[in-house]
Amino acid sequence: MDMSGLRNRFSTPLHIQIYANKIRVSTLDLPQRHMERIPQEPFTTPRLLVGNFKSAEKCLADAISELTRGKWMKKSFRVVIQPMEMAETGLCEVEERVLSELASSAGAHEVVIHVGALLSREQALDMV
Prior knowledge:
This protein is an alpha/beta fold. The chain has a single domain (3-127), classed as 2-Layer Sandwich (Nucleotidyltransferase, domain 5), CATH 3.30.420. The protein is built from four helices and five strands, in the order H-E-E-E-H-E-H-E-H. The chain has helices at 3-9, 53-67, 93-105, 121-127; strands at residues 11-19, 22-27, 34-37, 76-83, 108-113. Helix 2 (53-67) crosses helix 3 (93-105). The relative contact order is 0.21.
């Protein structure tokens, strides 16, 4: 087994949906679980879905921590991250970078950004 196959075996696939001041994280393995969090300090600004990075980072970390509570071994993550609002005309390079960095700061070693309709579990799993 090559290193990427080994890494994928010991990593958890996640689907992260970013809404205005709300994050939803779902596991893509079975049994599927999800966790929603609203930040203590808003991270959405009038112009950006994630305008306050530290607040979004903490909110995402809290959601993942709660979702993976009780696991004896901390895993890394393969992530599909999906902006659910404020992306009607696509994302600029800076917005893509913010989403990628947000997922990476939470422990993702592989990040795929999807802009469009809500993905099913199977569609998201196929992307990672």
